[in-house]
Design a protein that fits this description.
The protein contains 19 helices and 14 strands. The protein is α/β, with parallel strands linked by helices. The strands form 2 sheets. The chain has an 11-stranded mixed sheet with strand order 3-4-6-8-7-9-10-11-12-13-14, sandwiched between helices. The protein has a 3-stranded mixed sheet with strand order 1-2-5, with no helix packed on it. Helix 8 links the parallel strand 9 and strand 10. Helix 7 crosses helix 8, helix 13 crosses helix 14 and helix 13 packs parallel to helix 15. The N and C termini lie far apart (about 60 Å).
Length: about 575
């Protein structure tokens, strides 16, 4: 029997027992899909179906936590994919007075088999793509032989095959990478409900990846960026298996937010991900967000010292997940500035990608010019790190200068520029804006410029660069939270009506957002995934067309040119 169910018993044995024994007759109405490792039974939800907790890689155990992701063992019978599974080891996250539980989720849900995906698809498409009896998948990544061999309707003659050399049959696929500072978050979070995408004709995939020390600490003897390697492994799983869920493996959009968006930028620059996706969306990430090897080594030394071990693979392999998670919480606040490099996360997280060259620089040099890019930030990104912890209104001149010094080689120039462009700004606004641009703005402009420049002069001019600025203001926390980090997510997922997002301390505040903002934002993301064009002019180095998204949508050319120039 399949032992992959064991963690579900830990979470809710009564529910599992009920599913397996008391309601077996209901399984007739639940969709079953055959993946390359075995069959999975999903949950029908009206016109959509959800498949939760499907493994895309083996459980990371012991030393395996610090190795590249490995293939999962096949399972016998039909795996229950109707209940959420475990997530990556992490500590509970709270950010002052704002309720971010819909974003971070409920913390660490234990279980080793957490390298999993959730898949939402239209139920009607699943019925058409249902596999034949005992039809094996067994298709290698990108082998172009037609992924319909046993994945479509059992005879490989078309339904859902999505195969061949391009333009396959099937729906657009969107694969989401969650944020959380490289140390938190999961596919269980309420915000990442993919049913709205499935309702609107998209196969939506969310995934878990390794976090913290297991995912991103640069350990001698271990591959770097293991969390990113997990995302690439999930993309390989999608390429091989998504036709069985009605998706087109040759029209995959990889999108992410915050740390997840920075990972998307890293995957865009990663040669091992070539051909696994066709478009990318970077929401409040950074193409300049990676640590150097020297910066990463400081974090590794600090982690080893805190654990009382040598900074090597064998020593870390002996440490329990609990101790790794606890140690990670004590690493924040390290000064990672070196003679030649600033800290791209200005002390907010001790974990990021570790690369010799920043993703924006790799893209500028010509890495993969066949991927469309939609990239943007929110107008008041920095507010999230100041307002909820009482540091916005109390900001001083010293705070502004310190923020600039942490993030820019010429801090005086940055402060002078922002004072000039914002003559009426409060000290809190200046501090927040410089912080938001240090974390997300500068790295997003750099990645957009790199992508646009390369595409203008390359042979693939049909692959476009598009930029947005999300400007709708949340009136949470007495109206001060604003158009801050993560506030666009409920609109992208069309879940802005969720009750837990509303109230004086909730992400969207006490007011009702404009009625069509969620629908239009959601539709725009889907349009980009389907066609590569979100509906406004492409970004180039002459005009820098940017769509400002709020109650009204307004296209503006280079809306913050002087401030952008200050970071070049």
């Amino acid at each position: 029997m399949n032992h992959d169910h064991d963690h579900d018993h830990d979470q809710d044995p009564e529910h599992e027992h009920e599913h397996e024994h008391e309601h077996e007759h209901e399984h007739e109405h639940e969709p079953v899909v055959t993946t390359s490792k075995g069959a999975v039974r999903g949950l029908r939800q009206g016109d959509t179906a959800a498949f939760l907790n499907i493994p895309y890689a083996a459980p990371p155990r012991g030393a395996g936590r610090f190795e590249p992701p490995r293939p999962h063992e096949p399972w016998d019978g039909v795996r229950d994919a109707t209940v959420p599974g475990p997530n990556a080891p992490q500590s509970a996250r709270k950010l002052g007075s704002v309720d971010l539980s819909p974003y971070f989720g409920t913390g660490w849900i234990r279980g080793e088999d957490y390298l999993t995906v959730n898949v939402w698809a239209p139920a009607a498409v699943l019925a058409a793509a249902a596999p034949g009896p005992a039809a094996p998948v067994g298709v290698g990544v990108g082998d172009g032989d037609g992924v319909g061999d046993g994945v479509g309707d059992g005879d490989g003659d078309g339904d859902g095959d999505g195969g061949g050399g391009g333009g396959g049959v099937g729906l657009p696929v969107m694969v989401f990478v969650h944020g959380g500072g490289f140390v938190a978050g999961s596919s269980r979070s309420a915000l990442y409900d993919g049913s709205t995408f499935a309702r609107d004709g998209v196969v939506l995939v969310t995934l878990n990846y390794r976090l913290g020390i297991a995912g991103f600490l640069d350990i001698p003897g271990a591959p770097a960026n293991r969390g990113l390697l997990d995302v690439v492994a999930a993309l390989r799983w999608v390429r091989e298996n998504i036709p069985a869920f009605g998706g087109d493996p040759h029209n995959v959009t990889l999108f992410g937010q915050s740390a997840g968006a920075t990972i998307v930028g890293g995957v865009l620059a990663a040669p091992e991900a070539t051909g696994l996706f066709r478009r990318a969306i970077v929401q409040s990430g950074s193409g300049l967000g990676a640590f150097t090897g020297e910066q990463a080594a400081r974090v590794t030394r600090a982690a080893a010292e805190a654990l009382g071990i040598e900074p090597g693979l064998d020593a870390f392999a002996d440490i329990s997940d609990d101790h790794l998670v606890e140690t990670a919480t004590h690493l924040s606040g390290l000064d990672l500035r070196t003679e030649s490099h600033r800290d791209p996360l200005i002390g907010l997280s001790p974990f990021s990608l570790v690369l010799d060259r920043q993703p924006a620089d790799v893209v500028a040099a010509g890495r993969d010019n066949t991927v469309d890019l939609l990239i943007g930030t929110n107008t008041e990104e920095g507010n999230l790190y100041l307002v909820p912890v009482g540091k916005y209104a109390t900001s001083t001149e010293e705070d502004i200068e310190d923020t600039a010094a942490r993030s820019h080689p010429n801090p005086a120039r940055v402060v002078e520029t922002y004072r000039k462009t914002r003559p009426r700004a409060t000290l809190g606004e200046l501090r927040s804006t410089i912080m938001g641009d240090a974390l997300f703005g500068a790295g997003s402009w750099a990645l957009a410029d790199a992508h646009a420049t390369h595409h203008e002069h390359g042979t693939h001019h049909e692959h476009g660069t598009y930029v947005y600025e999300f400007a709708w203001r949340s009136h949470a926390l007495d109206g001060e939270l604003g158009a801050t980090h993560a506030v666009e997510l409920p609109f992208v997922f069309d879940v802005a009506h969720f009750p837990q997002l509303h109230g004086p301390t909730a992400l969207l505040g006490p007011d009702t957002p404009p009625t069509d903002l969620a629908a239009r934002t959601h539709e725009t993301w889907i349009r980009f995934a389907r066609t590569g064009n979100p509906g406004w002019d492409p970004y180039d180095e002459e005009r820098r067309a940017t769509m400002r998204i709020a109650a009204e949508w307004t296209q503006v050319d280079d809306p913050r040119g002087e401030e952008r120039e200050a970071w070049r």
